[in-house]
Amino acid sequence: MNWAFLQGLLSGVNKYSTALSRIWLSVVFIFRVMVYVVAAEDVWDDEQKDFVCNTLQPGCPNVCYDHFFPVSHVRLWALQLILVTCPSLLVVMHVAYREERERRHRMKHGPNAPPLYDNLNKKRGGLWWTYLLSLIFKAAVDSAFLYIFHRLYKDYDMPRVVHCSINPCPHTVDCYISRPTEKKIFTYFMVGTSAVCILLNLCEVTYLVGKRCIEILGARRQKSQHRHHLPDTCPPYVVSQGGHPQNGNSVLMKARSALMDQSGYP
Fold first, then answer.
1. Which whole number is the average pLDDT over 253-258?
2. Is 83 exposed, middle or buried (0-12, 13-18, 19+ CB in 10 A)?
3. Residue 136: per-residue pLDDT
4. CB neighbour class for 77 (10 Å; exposed up to 12, middle 13-18, buried from 19)
5. Which residues pair with 238 in a beta bridge?
6. For position 3, what pLDDT does the model report?
7. Which of these ranges, 19-28, 32-41, 111-120, 187-196, has the smallest mean pLDDT?
8. Which of 85, 95, 168, 201 suits a disulfide with 139, CB 3.0-4.6 Å?
9. 47-62 mean pLDDT
10. Apex 80 CA angle, 87 and 39, nearest 5
11. What are 148-153's contacts with CB under 8 Å, separation 24+?
């Protein structure tokens, strides 16, 4: 598996992320990817070879191993890490799409044309929704894999001895797992880091939605305040014969002068 490509992908999306997302990225690399590459693969390297059963019946150890370990821990973790990091690729692709659209717009209308986006890297519009859905998808993937691990390996446990009576085993045999305590510790560690990542994703979703709601409410409040400061009534005016509006004072002065002319008083 090319972990260097994965690192480059996540590092590229890091500049579009919030502080919580950068913490999530650090947890994924240090406590999940590095632990997986450095230690977990070596711990489960001998899982089937050292799965020993107290019987000489051919095929019995293989059938029992497949029954108790239908999917390898390390392969499930690798699939989980791949699916968790895929939404980051969607964010990078969306930003690349915006940059390409902006480039074509400038080629068509000239370099001095007004830009389509105020800030290409700012999470607004469709990019905000892409980023938000990527967070929800990452939290959903981690939650789904935690449930899968819980269903396959009850309570994430790693027993020292398992009892197997599946055909072709002649009777109930005892099978022994190699390094069960070490594997249990690594399982609990990976489950704990997955739970931390889920919590970080949910906190970031809450932060983004709350910030957006505050911005919308603030804009509406400013509009209402602006309308409140406008004058309730405008000065009366009439339209003259020339079609130009006249205010109330000029009309009253003209009417008074007309009365004075008729009465003959100064």
1. 48
2. middle
3. 93
4. buried
5. 246
6. 53
7. 111-120
8. 201
9. 85
10. 125
11. 148/76, 149/76, 149/187, 149/191, 152/70, 152/71, 153/187
Comparing CA positions, the residue from 163, 170, 176 lying closest to residue 56 is 170
| pLDDT value for 226 | 66
Q: In whole angstroms, what is the distance from residue 169 CA to residue 182 CA?
A: 28
Taking a C-beta distance cutoff of 8 angstroms, is the pair 25, 10 a contact? Answer: yes
What lies within 8 Å, CB to CB, of 88 at 6+ separation is: 9, 10, 13, 134
| CA–CA–CA angle 159, 163, 167 (5° rounding) | 135
C-alpha span between 137 and 236 (Å, rounded)? 61
Residues in the chain: 266
What pTM, to 2 d.p., does this model score?
0.72
Burial class (CB in 10 A: 0-12, 13-18, 19+), 41: middle
